[in-house]
Write a structure and sequence with these properties.
This protein has 704 residues and is of the alpha/beta class. The protein is built from 28 helices and 14 strands. Helix content is 47%, strand content 10%. It is elongated.
Amino acid sequence: MTQIVLPRPLAVATGNLDPLFTGLAALQPNVVVHGDAGVPQASAYTRVGNGFHPGTMQPRGFLGAARFLGSPPSLRSKRMTPPASVKLLMDKMKEGRNLEFYSEVGEMAHHMGDWVKCLIEGRPGLNPEEFDYLNRFTQYVFEKVKKAPRFSARFGELGVSPYVVRKMATVIHGFGVIEGLLDVFKMDANLDLLTVLHALECYDGSCQFLEHSVAVGRISEQDVEDAILNDARELFFKRVCAFVESRGYLGNGSLRGFAYKIIRGLLALKGSYDLFVPVAKGGLYAGALADLLGLKTCVIEVHAHNKKHPTSHVVDQMTPEDIKGKRVLLLDNDTVTGASVQEAMRLLSAFEPSLVDVFLCSEPSEHTQSQGSSPAAIAKIEKSGVRVFHHNNIKPVPMTDVFYAIHENLNTVLGRLSKVERGFEELLPQVDAECAADAKTLREFIREQKEVYFALNQFLPGVDRVRGSIVSRLEYFLRLFEGRIAHGAMALSLGEGGFFNREMQIIKTATMFLPDIAETLAIERYRHLAADYAKKRGIESIPTIPQSYTAAFLTAQAAFEDGYDVALIVGPEAFSFEPLFVDLGISTVAVNIPEIDYDGDRTLTILDSLSKLKGKKVLVVEDDIRSGATLRALVKGLQPALPKKLGLFLGLPIARQRLESIPAIFDKAYTTNTEQDEDMNFLQFLMEREVLFKRQIRVADFRK
């Protein structure tokens, strides 16, 4: 029995459309398909995966799915083009023909199955024609589905619903369709609205939806965790474990999920207390959450349950000055008899706090054997003048506060953006008071940077890094202005340029897009693929990292336009450049010729069949040429399958090359010039195959 593990994008794409698995079934007679949760389903015709979880959609898109799955050597260089039936349907749509919906849905199931099969075979990406087809086809199905938002029997029988449309649109990053689904899901008041809101990054709206769903009990804690943590789940649990383990306790044993109710309670109480004291072990998780929220904590350990003589001690270092006269909130999981709380208060009393209250993670319950705090124990504690807080008696803070508090304290890119925006809000009135014109310019700059940030397609590899650079730039300007004000230097900068002469000049000359956006996107698009291509051929590491992927891409594109049939990758260094040629649609094969010394002998290892080179126009892909020994060894090894014509691609800058060492058999050499403006060329290529911006923006200048 063969198991195929689909990455989440494919689970998203195909979850509720059973006929799609006909494409999978054709791969092998006995196949079990399951999602990345690792739970096999009943058969290849059942639902894939465990649903869509915002923030866990890596790898994303067709390229990401191909990167995740990899490809067998026999299919690695195969160019997957649309099947004839797909081309026929595409042509009909271009003619504007109104196809019968019943028959078209049947075709859709068949064709989408073909696309899934292509992905499993390692298909690297979509060409512009395929990309246009899938976008238009998804839009066409959406127009049909939205006319029946309550899911009539007709659509149910066909297996088509807004869920399927959303999943298809998510995989191809069809934000127009995803946005159009907002009204459809609102009509049905369905939980899938949360997924749509997160795909559109409407976080305030998704938090409002969470608020309502929690109030009416229509959402699980897992769904809340997915929505709040977004892409920071791993970071969150790593931070919680670090708090617990740094104090000598077992981290994993203290984790019980996201526990958003605890976080809401702590946020509601944080202004009323100076110190939060987790009682180990039951209160460690709440203590970790308090620490995450930036609250001052001090861990103590208490042993009082079923003990005649309770014991306790301070785990964290604490001096009397740390607690004397302070308002203290004890954090514990529950209380059954009240003994642990009493012992904790006895321990703390020596430090003379002004106030000690208790926060319990578990709600009052008569069934304390399984879970919950004893109402009688709570009443006993409260009689001593101590307030006891739990979920039922705390007014929760808005879910929006929870979302931004988590991301700001985890220092995610989104959290950093939120913090820097708040910093500017506090700063701008002071700038406005000194120079209204400067304040207006600064506000417009911040608005434009945010516009670019949220317009970028968050599912595209590299966008997180681009966004991080945008936020870093804003943080730089915030520090610049804060420093000027803090040092009272405004009066010194009076003059022709205004109060903030230097700062405003930098802002006025800054481009809306950072200079390295194209290179960042190219690196993230290609570097992992390059390592995968090498590893599949037994090459564990690639010694060469291109100085400029965008410059190398421009050189590869020039070679592609000269009509080469095959790219011959000379490993190990040239594997860095193989994804460029795969992306351009050139078939690739590889050999490996390690360099032992500058002008020594070279050993050639054939990694793929070279039979396809015979009589063809072949482009040899190398990083650089020095002595020419590698190329001479390659030409010697090609004698049994001598190509019709040989060209040479050199991916590193021309300054690194000794072109006089190129053997005479090569008709043409393509050298990489890193000084030319190649950014727009790569971005244009990328935008023909991927969605770079999920919404239209007013800023149109991509150049440096």
